[in-house]
């Protein structure tokens, strides 16, 4: 199983405000879809709050929602109640090693960071004044392996960088 965290952060590592994203960048939405649908067994893992903010399961992906609520049910998603349960269940899937994409929010990133092999970050070149959730610090145990600069345009209000990090072995 390869575990990747996928996130869009601002210059202060902020990721959200009042259970919404800080900004919508069309380019980032497209990139997110491309990353999380590119393999055969793509699993997206998210917290209950992020799921409610998205509002529906993401198509072409196995959707996992984490909640402590034992009664939580929703069509099209698999519900789990602990990180360990998810890791154990999806180590192998369909006879092969799946790609597990951790897609937020803050509480979920913090718990999966230690297990992650790769980080896909979209760095938004801006500091948002209003933010209440953040991505964990990207420490020196992470090596930047690629960076792509994207200029702001009519569909993307800020310059942004697609950055991929891998855990230093
Ligand atoms: N910029 C980005 O890339 C990005 C991506 C995703 C989300 N976001 C933003 O992040 C914000 C949401 O983040 P958040 O930290 O407030 O919420 P969250 O991580 O999406 O969800 C938190 C909920 O997940 C459940 N949970 C967490 N750990 C668990 C565990 N170990 N076992 C079982 N359930 C667990 C709990 O649900 P219950 O309360 O139901 O028990 C908890 O209240 C929003 O603003 C969203 O838009 C940004």
Automatic annotation (TrEMBL):
This is Dihydrofolate reductase. Belongs to the dihydrofolate reductase family. Keywords: NADP, One-carbon metabolism, Oxidoreductase. Gene3D superfamilies: Dihydrofolate Reductase, subunit A (3.40.430.10). It comes from the Bacteria. GO terms for biological process: dihydrofolate metabolic process; folic acid metabolic process; one-carbon metabolic process; tetrahydrofolate biosynthetic process. InterPro entries: DHFR, DHFR-like_dom_sf, DHFR_dom. One of its GO terms (molecular function) is dihydrofolate reductase activity. Pfam families: DHFR_1 (PF00186). PANTHER family: DIHYDROFOLATE REDUCTASE. It is an enzyme of class 1 (oxidoreductase). Its EC number is 1.5.1.3. One of its GO terms (cellular component) is cytosol. PROSITE patterns: DHFR_2. Signal peptide: none annotated. It catalyses: (6S)-5,6,7,8-tetrahydrofolate + NADP(+) = 7,8-dihydrofolate + NADPH + H(+). Residues 2-167 form the DHFR domain. Key enzyme in folate metabolism. Catalyzes an essential reaction for de novo glycine and purine synthesis, and for DNA precursor synthesis. Pathway: Cofactor biosynthesis; tetrahydrofolate biosynthesis; 5,6,7,8-tetrahydrofolate from 7,8-dihydrofolate: step 1/1.
């Amino acid at each position: 199983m390869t575990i990747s965290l996928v996130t869009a952060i601002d210059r202060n590592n902020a990721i959200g405000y009042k259970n919404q994203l800080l900004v919508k960048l069309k380019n980032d939405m497209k990139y997110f879809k491309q990353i999380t649908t590119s393999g055969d067994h793509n699993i997206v893992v998210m917290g209950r709050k992020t799921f409610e903010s998205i509002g529906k399961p993401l198509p072409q992906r196995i959707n996992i929602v984490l909640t402590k609520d034992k009664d939580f049910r929703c069509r099209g998603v698999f519900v789990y109640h602990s990180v360990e349960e998810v890791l154990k269940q999806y180590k192998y899937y369909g006879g092969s090693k799946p790609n597990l994409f951790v897609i937020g929010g803050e509480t979920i990133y913090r718990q999966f960071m230690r297990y992650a092999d790769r980080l896909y970050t979209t760095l938004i070149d801006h500091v948002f004044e209003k933010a209440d959730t953040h991505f964990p610090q990207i420490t020196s145990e992470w090596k930047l392996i690629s960076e792509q600069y994207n200029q702001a345009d009519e569909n993307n209000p800020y310059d942004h960088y697609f950055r991929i990090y891998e855990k230093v072995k």
